[in-house]
Amino acid sequence: MSSRPSSSTSADQRTLSTAPLTVVAAVLNERENIEPFLENLSWVDHIVAVDHGSVDGSRELLESHPAVEVIDAPAGEGLIEDIRRLGLEKVTNGWVLVLDLDERVTDDLRREIEELLESESPESGYHIPFRHYLLGRWLQHGGWADQHLRLFKAGHGDYLPGLIHADAIVNGTVGQLKGKILHFAHPTIHDFLARMNRYTTQSAPALARGEVGGLRKRRMLPPSRFKWLRASASVFWCRYFKDRGFKDGMPGFITAVLLAAYIFIEQSKAWECQLESHR
Questions:
Q1: How far is residue 131's CA from residue 142's CA, in Å, rounded to a whole number?
Q2: If exposure means fewest CB atoms within 10 Å of the residue's CB, which of 88, 219, 240, 260 is most exposed?
Q3: Cα dist from 66 to 29, 46, 50, whole Å
Q4: Is the pLDDT score of 129 beyond 90?
Q5: Distance CA 143, CA 11 (A)
Q6: CA–CA separation, 212 vs 97, rounded Å?
Q7: pTM
Q8: Pairing mode, if any, of strands 46-51 and 21-27?
Q9: DSSP string over 109-177
Q10: Spelled out in words, what is the top-level CATH class assigned to the domain 15-183?
């Protein structure tokens, strides 16, 4: 995948009638991803990077790039959706593309977006299909053929506060793009477990308060051994059998098991939060 296809124009070559495009990205210790991320987005007008506690030099690298505006969020606080909201507040015109540092725009998607910027689109936002690379393989099954609402007009999209793994909410009609975002997620099992630990810690307090949230976008289950195990088993069955994750070989099996464990750990941490609140 070329980061700068010759058929497209760069940001400084566009006409005055073209709407600007701003990328909003949450950043936390992403030093190894910054160079390919910026190279892939050399055609955009502006990047708002919201750093929430990086200690590996990510912030300094981003600040050295002329197209990047770095703002700070409280270290270790807030879900990634809440972090993104801080970046969205900085964008007042044009279009917004929300990306993570481990995501890349394909050439096809870039061409679609650039055509969109030059038109008067009736849509306020667009769903974009994703392709995920996990544990050394492009996953084709197991629920990984998904799409997310990541592109929308400035001021028309936002995230619900406190809801993890949530898509943006857009004021207006929503269309569909064909080009994909490539997600180089969880290169190692260690990385998967580290993020799972962080995300479940973030979502546990809201679940403990009886709010909708977590991986399943539901309320916390009652403290029941049977219900917790059934919920975890259900995730594994859906991912591995119903969505045919077994066709992705060992990576499909491992990710199905890890996602089942995710549910159990999330419920356990919410239960722990409830215990602490009554002490």
A1: 12
A2: 219
A3: 20, 9, 16
A4: yes
A5: 35
A6: 26
A7: 0.87
A8: parallel
A9: HHHHHHHHHTS--S-SEEEEEEEEEETTEEE-STT---EEEEEEETTTEE--TT-TTPPPEESS-EEE-
A10: alpha beta
